[in-house]
Structures are given as structure tokens and as C-alpha cells.
Design brief:
The complex is a heterodimer of chains A (108) and B (118). Chain A is an all-beta fold. Chain A is built from no helices and eleven strands. The chains are: A mainly beta (108), B mainly beta (118).
Chain lengths: 108, 118
């Protein structure tokens, strides 16, 4: 099973600032990596798939990069609606698909 | 618009069973792999199982193998998860998901809560 590790666990950011979230895989997942946003009491929402492709309707301030074992989600200028928990997930080859433990982005 | 509506959760005793359902609309259900993801209270996300478009392939996380069975009815645009021999650690919100691009989850149900307790 591939282990996904996210850092940091919590990220304190001011409105308008850039946020950089990291995700590391225990072995290569090529570009089979997705990012999700989850707000309290809501279902997760797909932001990025294929490591760098934005899902339908996702604002351009969200961008993903990386391949292999190291990945980054960048939010270029944080808006109030972006404060949430973010998860990475691999889907390389066959299941089991695994998620990182999440990064909570909070207001500084 | 993709819509997934989860149902069937509830309070069940250890060792009990439930059948979760997911009603899909807004897309051609039979063209997509589908799956279930769960989230224990206050915890992260865990992929549970998925099923191929025609139901011919199914995969499970190790912790549920032999106890959970995923199935689908393409004529009814519905996905199911039969869960048996429930344990306290199965307590979670269960989300129905639609897979795209080989395994990303574009489309989530609202979730249904399963609580295992005596």
C-alpha cells in the first residue's frame, strides 16, 4: 500500500497570501494524484486531478504541480472561502487508493 | 449536473448488517467506475471499495474484505454497499463517489452515517 504524507498538518495564512501545501508518496504514483477540499459539515470537492489539471469550475488561483513522489497544491491568493481542510489522494495502477491525512488551512 | 444521493445508514450493533444505497443522476451511470469512501468522526478520508462500469471488477480496502460487498444496478442508476459483521471501527460517514480519469473522485454524495454501537 502506498502511504501518502501531507505537510504541514495545519497552515495559518492571512487573506490574500499564498498557501503552499505538500504531499509525498511512499513510492512513485507518476501523475496519478488528486487534491480535494473539504469544509466542515460538507462532502469533499475535487480540485485537481492528474497532479495539475483543475477540475470543472475550480478557480485559477488553485494550481497543482509535481510528479513521482512529491506534489504541491498552491493557492495563489487566499480567499475567505478557501479556509478548509485539503487532502491528497493517489490513484496509480490498481487500488487501494489512499489519502493523505489532510492539511487544515486556517486564518492567521 | 451530477447528483449522488446516499442513504441507508443508521445505528447498528456490533456484528450487525446494513445496506447502503446511492441514487445517481445527471450523468450516464453505466459509463463510470463508482465507489465508496468513508470518514470516521473527526478523521480523514479512507477509500473503501470500487466497482467497474459493468460490475465485472471489484476492489476493496483490506480492512473490509470478506465483510463488505459493493454492487450496482445500471438499470436503476444505483450503487450499493452491503456491510456485514460490523465493528466499532466501521463507524463513519460513507460517501458514494464517481470516478474519473482512472481514480479521481469527481462527484460525491452527501454521505450517510453508520454508527456501530451496543
Amino acid at each position: 500500500e502506498i502511504v501518502m504524507t501531507q505537510s504541514p498538518a495545519t497552515l495559518s495564512v492571512s487573506l490574500g497570501e499564498r498557501a503552499t501545501l505538500s504531499c509525498r508518496a511512499s513510492q512513485t504514483v507518476r501523475s496519478k494524484l488528486a487534491w480535494y477540499q473539504q469544509k466542515p459539515g460538507q462532502s469533499p470537492r475535487l480540485l485537481i486531478f492528474g497532479a495539475s489539471t483543475r477540475a470543472t469550475g475550480i478557480p485559477a488561483r488553485f494550481s497543482g504541480s509535481g510528479s513521482g513522489t512529491e506534489f504541491t497544491l498552491t493557492i495563489s491568493s487566499l480567499q475567505s472561502e478557501d479556509f478548509a481542510t485539503y487532502y491528497c489522494q493517489h490513484y496509480n495502477n490498481w487500488p487501494p487508493w489512499t489519502f493523505g491525512q489532510g492539511t487544515k488551512v486556517e486564518i492567521k | 449536473e451530477v447528483q449522488l444521493v446516499d442513504s441507508g445508514g443508521g445505528l447498528v450493533q456490533p456484528g450487525g448488517s446494513l445496506r447502503l444505497s446511492c441514487a445517481a443522476s445527471g450523468f450516464i451511470f453505466s459509463n463510470f467506475w463508482m465507489g465508496w469512501v468513508r470518514q470516521a468522526p473527526g478523521k480523514g478520508l479512507e477509500w473503501v471499495a470500487n466497482i467497474k462500469e459493468d460490475g465485472s471488477e471489484k476492489y476493496y480496502v483490506d480492512s473490509v474484505k470478506g465483510r463488505f460487498t459493493i454492487s450496482r444496478d445500471n438499470a436503476k442508476n444505483s450503487l450499493y454497499l452491503h456491510i456485514n459483521s460490523l465493528r466499532a471501527e466501521d463507524t463513519a460517514i460513507y460517501y458514494c463517489v464517481r470516478e474519473v480519469a482512472g481514480g479521481a473522485f469527481a462527484g460525491w454524495g452527501q454521505g450517510t452515517l453508520v454508527t456501530v454501537s451496543s
